[in-house]
């Protein structure tokens, strides 16, 4: 994804739905995303299952997980699943990964200690990359070991030669804390944080650049993304009620000003002004996650048609980064 443009994606909220996805594909967006848990407290889906539905029910847009809680999965299994979906979709899959932890019983159920989430994710990301190269792989790590494994994804009818995209789908690291930023700099193809302010995003960009420079890594082609809870309505008060009702309970008695810093709401003009702050901080690909319980497609439509055209690329690089 070019750093010379600003694009929008959308989260398929509340669940992937064939009609919703068809309508979203007609909008000026480039991607659609969904995550999920193994044992969520509500009747919501799992990340790979949702990704499979979006693969089948879309034709044009890039589709991705936001996010896949990678330490809950064996990397060989998930490598095969994701490679198959990527092949069947014509190379449209992206993989947002995170370490999770908000539902500890998920980790208990699959026998993964919470304290191992980070190192398991690092090792799993390395295994995914190795298997997606298509050659036989030997691996002897802290958590996983195998010899002479070669991944062969499904080959769509009429596809010549190997069906695997060279290197596999991009891996986009999610999170909010410095360990996630360092993971993105070391192992990621992009940065996909959530629930952070523009100022915090700017600091994360500088941290990732600093870490990458220390490793001698060139961040050319790295994707600067943001998973953004928001509501856009012609009635700005309704949009603010959307966000307060959707996210407010998670923050107890925190003032509405805090929610506004991390989850913009209001009219298209008001939301565009807030998103411009994220653009100035380094964001180039927004995943708009409607923070509302109804008419989520309406939020995505207003964002794509009336907010996106108002955003402008900054004329100078972000201070402290390498361009």
Topology overview:
Blueprint (H helix, E strand, L loop, with lengths): L6 E5 L6 H8 L5 E4 L12 H11 L4 E8 L5 H14 L4 E6 L5 H7 L6 H16 L4 E4 L4 E5 L21 E3 L4 H10 L2 E2 L6 H18 L7 E10 L3 H12 L8 H7 L2 E2 L1 H14 L3 E6 L5 H12 L16
Parallel strand pairs: 1-2, 1-11, 2-3, 3-4, 4-7, 7-8, 8-9, 9-10, 9-11
Antiparallel strand pairs: 5-6
Helix pairs in contact: 2-3, 3-5, 6-7, 7-10, 10-11
Give the structural class: alpha/beta
Q: Which residues form runs of ≥5 with pLDDT under 50?
A: none
Major beta-sheet overview: 8 strands, parallel, barrel
Global Rg: 19 Å
Compressed to H and E, one letter per element, the order equals EHEHEHEHHEEEHEHEHHEHEH
Note the total helix count. Answer: 11
* Portion in helices: 25-40%
Order of the strands making up the biggest sheet: 1-2-3-4-7-8-9-11
Roughly what is the average pLDDT, rounded to an integer? 93
Indicate the proportion of strand residues.
15-25%
Number of strands: 11
Distance between the termini: 15 Å
User: Per the principal axes of the C-alpha atoms, what is the gross shape?
Assistant: globular
Short overview:
With 323 residues, the chain is an alpha/beta fold. Helix content is 40%, strand content 17%.
Structure description:
The protein is α/β, with parallel strands linked by helices. Helices cover 40% and strands 17% of the residues. The chain has helices at residues 18-25, 47-57, 75-88, 104-110, 117-132, 178-187, 198-215, 236-247, 256-262, 268-281, 296-307, and strands spanning 7-11, 31-34, 62-69, 93-98, 137-140, 145-149, 171-173, 190-191, 223-232, 265-266, 285-290. Strand 1, helix 1 (18-25) and strand 2 form a beta-alpha-beta unit. Helix 7 (198-215) runs parallel beside helix 10. The longest helix is centred in the middle third of the chain and has 18 residues, at 198-215.
């Amino acid at each position: 994804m070019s750093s010379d443009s600003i694009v929008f994606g959308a989260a398929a909220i509340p669940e992937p739905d064939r009609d919703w996805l068809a309508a979203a594909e007609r909008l000026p967006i480039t991607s659609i995303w969904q995550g999920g848990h193994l044992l969520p407290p509500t009747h919501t889906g799992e990340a790979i299952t949702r990704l499979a539905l979006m693969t089948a029910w879309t034709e044009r847009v890039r589709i991705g997980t936001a996010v896949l809680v990678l330490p809950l999965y064996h990397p060989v299994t998930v490598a095969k699943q994701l490679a198959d979906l990527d092949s069947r979709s014509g190379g449209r899959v992206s993989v947002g990964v995170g370490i999770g932890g908000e539902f500890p019983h998920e980790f208990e159920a699959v026998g993964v200690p919470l304290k191992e989430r980070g190192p398991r994710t690092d090792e799993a990301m390395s295994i995914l990359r190795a298997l997606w190269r298509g050659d036989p792989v030997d691996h002897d790590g802290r958590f996983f070991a195998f010899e002479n494994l070669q991944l062969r994804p499904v080959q769509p009818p009429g596809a010549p030669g190997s069906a695997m995209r060279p290197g596999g789908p991009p891996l986009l690291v999610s999170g909010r804390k410095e360990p996630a930023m360092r993971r993105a700099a070391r192992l990621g193809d992009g940065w996909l944080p959530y629930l952070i302010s523009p100022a915090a995003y700017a600091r994360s960009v500088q941290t990732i650049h600093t870490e990458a420079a220390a490793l001698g890594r060139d961040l050319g082609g790295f994707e600067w993304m943001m998973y953004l809870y928001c509501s856009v309505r012609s009635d700005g008060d309704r949009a603010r009620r959307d966000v307060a009702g959707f996210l407010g309970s998670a923050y107890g008695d925190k003032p509405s000003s805090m929610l506004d810093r991390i989850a913009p709401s209001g009219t298209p003009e008001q939301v565009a002004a807030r998103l411009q702050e994220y653009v100035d901080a380094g964001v180039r690909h927004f995943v708009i996650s409607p923070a509302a319980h109804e008419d989520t497609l309406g939020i995505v439509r207003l964002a794509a048609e009336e907010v996106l055209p108002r955003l402008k690329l900054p004329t100078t690089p972000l201070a402290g980064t390498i361009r």
